[in-house]
Amino acid sequence: MSSTNVSSPRGGISSTTILIIVVVGILLIIGGVLIGQLTPSLLPTQASAEARQIDDLFQVMLVIGGAIFLLVQGLLVFSIWRFRAKPGDTSDGIHMHGNTSLEITWTVIPAIIVVFLTVIAWQVWANLNTPRGDEMTVHVTGARFNWAFTYSAPLSIFPDAVDVSTLPASVQEDLQDDNAINVSSPVLHLYSGRAVALQMEPRDVIHAFWVPAFRLKQDLIPGRITTIHVTPVQEGTFPIKCAELCGANHGMMVGQVIVHADETAYNTWLVEEMRKVIYPPADPVVRGRNILSSNVYPCYTCHVLDDLAEFTWTGNVGPNLNGIADRAATSRASTTGLTPAEYLYTAVHEPGAYLAPGYGNLMPQLNIPECDSWAIVAYLATQSASGEAPFEVDQPPQCVITAGPGSAPAAEATSEATPAVAAPAEATAEATAGS
What we know:
By secondary structure, the chain is α+β, with helices and mostly antiparallel strands. It has helices spanning 15-38, 49-82, 100-128, 169-178, 263-278, 284-293, 324-336, 340-349, 370-380, and strands spanning 136-143, 146-154, 180-185, 188-191, 196-202, 207-211, 216-220, 226-230, 236-242, 254-260. The longest helix is centred in the N-terminal third of the chain and has 34 residues, at 49-82.
């Protein structure tokens, strides 16, 4: 079968063809602009300055991509209609080969578009990754399956006169560095108009920090600290998602950003959080319950504990903690050779030392401060069938807190407690993880 070589007519393009091309071009531009303008209306609100930059870039891409989409689909529909087989026509289609002008056109135009998009995308990327002046730094920790945020709160904003020598040892240690206190929260608090650098790292696997309203997404990679810069511009509460499949309860790894109206409102919240750190309850049981119910640590996403059910302690990935004190005082103590308190401390502080039957070594090293760990042990010791602790938990001397403003009555002084060395590995299969 012969092949026909089709090329442009020698007489040039007719005025009718030119008019059609112009009209079609105008329609494509209008269609692309409509797609670019209407599609972003489906996106969440623009709650950050960066969201505006990203949406502007997205609109440009939608306008260009929308016009190309309409052109390709239009040519496809036109070709199906114009060159369809006529009734009774069973012959083969025309064989066409070669059109240098067309090939140059569809190579040069996409190349120009790609270069243009690369330049403007690079400008946006560079702006997003450039530190802002007078940034506030917040440390973000991702762990299966929650987010935790740590703020450096200067003592200068605290309204009360504080005798530093009477504060808990951990607080005094914080103040020695920069006269600021570390405050942690499961909610990210910011305020409108203030630039912030989020320095992020995971405790276990890769996570992805994603705030749709900010249009920002960043992976948290083990062994590295990754940073994103954001300036919130709208007051409100916005969701945080983990955009990286990180385990069985990945869907529970959600959080919130609360953007306060101004610095005054932000400092009001921060001062209340500082007060909890400066004047913790003297009773270690109360402190331990407050720590766990704050959900700063991801324990609640894996464990069930009825006493904390109102704080969403309904996880099903880890061992059930109801009655943990009774088990620690009987089977776990006899299996590990540790005292019940030592067993619970080790389970909190070294989660891989003892594994409950049927559960793998999935709990991350949470690096919970020692005094917080002992407070948690004191609270877990009350989780028994009777509601009373079946054994004593002696707090280390440096963890004993006397009564102060906002504190519960001081507990009796306790003797020094030193965490024991983990028992041999053969005991592991017998012991239930305590956190």
